[in-house]
Amino acid sequence: xxxxxxxxxxxxxxxxxxxxxxxxxxxxxxxxxxxxxxxxxxxxxxxxxxxxxxxxxxxxxxxxxxxxxxxxxxxxxxxxxxxxxxxxxxxxxxxxxxxxxxxxxxxxxxxxxxxxxxxxxxxxxxxxxxxxxxxxxxxxxxxxxxxxxxxxxxxxxxxxxxxxxxxxxxxxxxxxxxxxxxxxxxxxxxxxxxxxxx
Length: 198
Description:
Elements: E1 4-7, H1 14-23, E2 28-31, H2 34-39, E3 42-45, H3 51-60, H4 63-66, E4 74-77, H5 79-83, E5 85-88, E6 93-94, E7 99-105, E8 116-121, E9 123-124, E10 139-144, E11 146-147, E12 154-159, E13 163-170, E14 173-176, H6 184-196
Protein backbone atom coordinates (compact mmCIF):
# COMPACT_ATOMS: atom_id res chain seq x y z
CA UNK A 1 0.00 0.00 0.00
CA UNK A 2 1.25 3.49 -0.84
CA UNK A 3 1.63 5.72 2.21
CA UNK A 4 0.45 8.80 0.33
CA UNK A 5 -0.87 9.15 -3.20
CA UNK A 6 -0.30 12.62 -4.62
CA UNK A 7 -2.88 13.19 -7.34
CA UNK A 8 -1.18 14.40 -10.51
CA UNK A 9 -3.46 17.31 -11.34
CA UNK A 10 -0.74 19.20 -13.21
CA UNK A 11 0.98 22.40 -12.18
CA UNK A 12 4.28 23.10 -10.53
CA UNK A 13 5.71 22.61 -7.06
CA UNK A 14 5.10 18.86 -6.89
CA UNK A 15 8.81 18.21 -6.32
CA UNK A 16 8.79 20.49 -3.26
CA UNK A 17 5.85 18.57 -1.82
CA UNK A 18 7.47 15.18 -2.45
CA UNK A 19 10.69 16.35 -0.78
CA UNK A 20 8.81 17.81 2.19
CA UNK A 21 7.03 14.49 2.71
CA UNK A 22 10.28 12.54 2.29
CA UNK A 23 11.86 14.61 5.08
CA UNK A 24 9.02 13.33 7.28
CA UNK A 25 9.79 9.73 6.30
CA UNK A 26 6.77 9.41 4.02
CA UNK A 27 6.67 7.34 0.85
CA UNK A 28 4.69 9.45 -1.62
CA UNK A 29 3.68 8.44 -5.15
CA UNK A 30 2.61 10.92 -7.84
CA UNK A 31 -0.19 9.29 -9.81
CA UNK A 32 -3.45 9.58 -11.73
CA UNK A 33 -4.16 5.87 -11.28
CA UNK A 34 -7.55 5.49 -9.61
CA UNK A 35 -6.61 2.14 -8.08
CA UNK A 36 -3.50 3.52 -6.39
CA UNK A 37 -5.40 6.57 -5.19
CA UNK A 38 -8.29 4.53 -3.80
CA UNK A 39 -5.99 2.15 -1.94
CA UNK A 40 -3.51 4.70 -0.57
CA UNK A 41 -3.46 5.30 3.19
CA UNK A 42 -3.72 9.04 2.55
CA UNK A 43 -4.28 11.23 -0.50
CA UNK A 44 -3.03 14.72 -1.32
CA UNK A 45 -4.59 16.87 -4.06
CA UNK A 46 -2.14 19.68 -4.83
CA UNK A 47 -2.64 22.32 -7.48
CA UNK A 48 -1.13 25.41 -9.02
CA UNK A 49 -2.70 27.13 -12.01
CA UNK A 50 -6.21 27.34 -13.42
CA UNK A 51 -9.19 25.56 -11.88
CA UNK A 52 -10.68 24.64 -15.28
CA UNK A 53 -7.45 23.02 -16.47
CA UNK A 54 -7.09 21.03 -13.24
CA UNK A 55 -10.71 19.82 -13.37
CA UNK A 56 -10.26 18.79 -17.02
CA UNK A 57 -7.22 16.69 -16.08
CA UNK A 58 -9.12 15.08 -13.19
CA UNK A 59 -12.08 14.31 -15.48
CA UNK A 60 -9.83 12.79 -18.16
CA UNK A 61 -8.42 10.46 -15.50
CA UNK A 62 -11.88 9.52 -14.20
CA UNK A 63 -11.10 11.08 -10.82
CA UNK A 64 -14.00 13.51 -10.51
CA UNK A 65 -16.12 10.65 -9.12
CA UNK A 66 -13.29 8.82 -7.34
CA UNK A 67 -12.04 11.71 -5.17
CA UNK A 68 -15.39 12.66 -3.56
CA UNK A 69 -15.93 8.98 -2.64
CA UNK A 70 -12.59 8.56 -0.84
CA UNK A 71 -12.87 7.57 2.82
CA UNK A 72 -9.20 7.89 3.85
CA UNK A 73 -7.74 11.27 4.89
CA UNK A 74 -7.47 13.69 1.96
CA UNK A 75 -5.55 16.98 1.94
CA UNK A 76 -6.12 19.63 -0.73
CA UNK A 77 -3.35 22.20 -1.11
CA UNK A 78 -3.82 25.67 -2.65
CA UNK A 79 -5.85 25.13 -5.85
CA UNK A 80 -6.34 21.55 -4.63
CA UNK A 81 -8.24 22.90 -1.63
CA UNK A 82 -10.39 25.08 -3.88
CA UNK A 83 -11.21 22.06 -6.05
CA UNK A 84 -12.82 20.38 -3.03
CA UNK A 85 -15.54 23.06 -3.12
CA UNK A 86 -18.53 23.42 -5.44
CA UNK A 87 -17.19 25.93 -7.90
CA UNK A 88 -14.69 28.61 -8.83
CA UNK A 89 -15.43 31.93 -10.51
CA UNK A 90 -12.34 31.23 -12.58
CA UNK A 91 -13.87 30.12 -15.85
CA UNK A 92 -16.39 29.74 -14.18
CA UNK A 93 -15.65 26.14 -13.24
CA UNK A 94 -17.65 23.41 -11.52
CA UNK A 95 -15.42 21.69 -8.99
CA UNK A 96 -15.69 18.45 -6.97
CA UNK A 97 -18.59 19.61 -4.77
CA UNK A 98 -17.42 17.99 -1.55
CA UNK A 99 -17.70 21.27 0.37
CA UNK A 100 -20.18 24.11 -0.16
CA UNK A 101 -18.86 27.37 -1.55
CA UNK A 102 -17.39 29.17 -4.54
CA UNK A 103 -13.85 30.51 -4.88
CA UNK A 104 -13.85 34.17 -5.90
CA UNK A 105 -11.08 36.38 -7.24
CA UNK A 106 -9.46 38.89 -4.92
CA UNK A 107 -10.09 42.53 -5.76
CA UNK A 108 -6.77 44.30 -6.25
CA UNK A 109 -6.20 47.48 -4.25
CA UNK A 110 -3.33 49.78 -3.32
CA UNK A 111 -0.87 47.66 -1.37
CA UNK A 112 -2.85 44.47 -2.17
CA UNK A 113 -1.82 43.17 -5.58
CA UNK A 114 -3.35 40.04 -7.07
CA UNK A 115 -2.17 37.33 -6.77
CA UNK A 116 -1.82 37.31 -2.99
CA UNK A 117 1.76 36.09 -2.80
CA UNK A 118 4.07 35.73 0.18
CA UNK A 119 3.92 35.19 3.92
CA UNK A 120 0.75 36.00 5.84
CA UNK A 121 -0.64 35.20 9.28
CA UNK A 122 -3.12 32.49 10.19
CA UNK A 123 -6.01 33.07 12.57
CA UNK A 124 -7.05 29.75 14.09
CA UNK A 125 -10.84 29.79 14.47
CA UNK A 126 -11.36 26.31 15.91
CA UNK A 127 -9.26 23.38 17.02
CA UNK A 128 -8.57 20.57 14.59
CA UNK A 129 -5.98 17.76 14.43
CA UNK A 130 -4.57 19.28 11.21
CA UNK A 131 -3.59 22.42 13.11
CA UNK A 132 -2.41 20.77 16.33
CA UNK A 133 0.42 22.87 17.76
CA UNK A 134 -0.12 25.76 15.31
CA UNK A 135 -0.77 29.05 17.12
CA UNK A 136 -2.82 31.96 15.82
CA UNK A 137 -0.46 34.46 14.28
CA UNK A 138 1.77 31.80 12.71
CA UNK A 139 2.98 32.68 9.23
CA UNK A 140 2.34 30.52 6.15
CA UNK A 141 3.24 30.98 2.49
CA UNK A 142 0.46 31.84 0.02
CA UNK A 143 0.31 32.13 -3.79
CA UNK A 144 -3.24 32.52 -5.12
CA UNK A 145 -5.67 34.84 -6.87
CA UNK A 146 -8.91 33.15 -5.77
CA UNK A 147 -10.15 32.35 -2.29
CA UNK A 148 -13.13 30.96 -0.36
CA UNK A 149 -15.03 33.03 2.20
CA UNK A 150 -15.03 31.66 5.75
CA UNK A 151 -17.69 29.01 6.29
CA UNK A 152 -18.82 26.24 8.62
CA UNK A 153 -15.83 24.03 7.72
CA UNK A 154 -13.22 26.77 8.10
CA UNK A 155 -10.62 26.04 10.79
CA UNK A 156 -8.27 28.95 10.04
CA UNK A 157 -8.61 32.25 8.23
CA UNK A 158 -6.22 34.80 6.82
CA UNK A 159 -6.81 38.45 5.96
CA UNK A 160 -6.11 40.05 2.59
CA UNK A 161 -8.42 43.02 2.54
CA UNK A 162 -11.07 40.80 4.14
CA UNK A 163 -10.95 37.40 5.84
CA UNK A 164 -10.77 34.29 3.66
CA UNK A 165 -10.50 30.57 4.39
CA UNK A 166 -6.90 29.52 4.97
CA UNK A 167 -7.65 25.95 6.12
CA UNK A 168 -10.71 23.68 6.20
CA UNK A 169 -11.72 20.36 7.70
CA UNK A 170 -14.83 18.35 6.86
CA UNK A 171 -14.89 14.70 7.85
CA UNK A 172 -11.93 13.03 6.16
CA UNK A 173 -11.36 16.00 3.82
CA UNK A 174 -8.92 18.73 4.81
CA UNK A 175 -7.37 21.63 2.95
CA UNK A 176 -4.91 24.49 3.17
CA UNK A 177 -5.02 27.52 0.89
CA UNK A 178 -1.35 28.11 1.69
CA UNK A 179 1.53 25.83 0.69
CA UNK A 180 2.70 23.82 3.73
CA UNK A 181 5.63 22.47 1.70
CA UNK A 182 6.89 26.08 1.40
CA UNK A 183 5.93 27.24 4.90
CA UNK A 184 9.07 26.20 6.82
CA UNK A 185 8.56 24.64 10.27
CA UNK A 186 4.87 25.52 10.48
CA UNK A 187 4.21 23.79 7.18
CA UNK A 188 6.21 20.72 8.20
CA UNK A 189 4.17 20.48 11.40
CA UNK A 190 0.92 20.64 9.41
CA UNK A 191 2.08 17.92 7.01
CA UNK A 192 3.14 15.77 9.97
CA UNK A 193 -0.26 16.36 11.59
CA UNK A 194 -1.96 15.21 8.39
CA UNK A 195 0.18 12.07 8.29
CA UNK A 196 -0.14 11.18 11.97
CA UNK A 197 -3.27 12.80 13.43
CA UNK A 198 -5.90 13.20 10.71
